[in-house]
């Protein structure tokens, strides 16, 4: 099994430790990982802003970089969902279709493909899980609370394997943080209020860290935490699952 490691542009620029943790974790689990050095943005920001017709070069480069791998894994639910739903190519639609079927967000790759049952990880802290909208309602990493259905949470399943970690219960466990990509620019006041609500839910329930499979959401929440001079920190789930001290 050879995995192509897809690191979204904002992760590469602002949170490289999460990218490194993803690589190290996969290698610990015996996966052969290759990082295509010419990769860049998948085109999600343009597509989500109504300019999907301008992403053809991004699509072509993505296909060029990742078509030949057995699997593609990324530490970002939103970027993975974009590729799953919107990667197309008039010249290479067969390869695009293949990629759409073999790209995975890290958490779902660990639970659904590798089916891991044990992790050598230690993180002695109280942690609250932020279920991002893309991960929750797009990739179905967790059950939506508004549905009358059996609950499940793939991130929670993995965090249960981490020694010393205590998961905190939230009042509204799957509420949107308000980031929404360009939404936080176009609707700043609404976005900030939603983010403050999420931060309050975590902090009042005792979380020392907020984790998620989407660093875009965590980036939004981190800004609010810093402005509030809060001691609560954000950390990508890959960094927790890879932690040994």
Summed up, the helix count is: 13
Number of domains: 2
Q: Cα distance, first to last residue?
A: 29 Å
CATH class of the largest domain: Alpha Beta
* CATH topology name of the largest domain: Rossmann fold
SSE order, as H and E?
Answer: EHHEHHEHHEHEHHEHHEHEH
SS content category: alpha/beta
Percent of residues in helices = 40-55%
Low-confidence stretches: none
The best one-word shape is globular
Amount of beta strand = 5-15%
Indicate the radius of gyration in whole angstroms: 18 Å
Named at the architecture level, the CATH assignment of the largest domain is: 3-Layer(aba) Sandwich
Mean pLDDT rating = 94
| Strand line-up of the largest beta sheet | 2-1-3-4
How many β-strand runs? 8
Largest sheet: 4 strands, parallel
Structure description:
By secondary structure, this protein is of the alpha/beta class. Helices cover 47% and strands 11% of the residues. The protein has 13 helices and 8 strands.
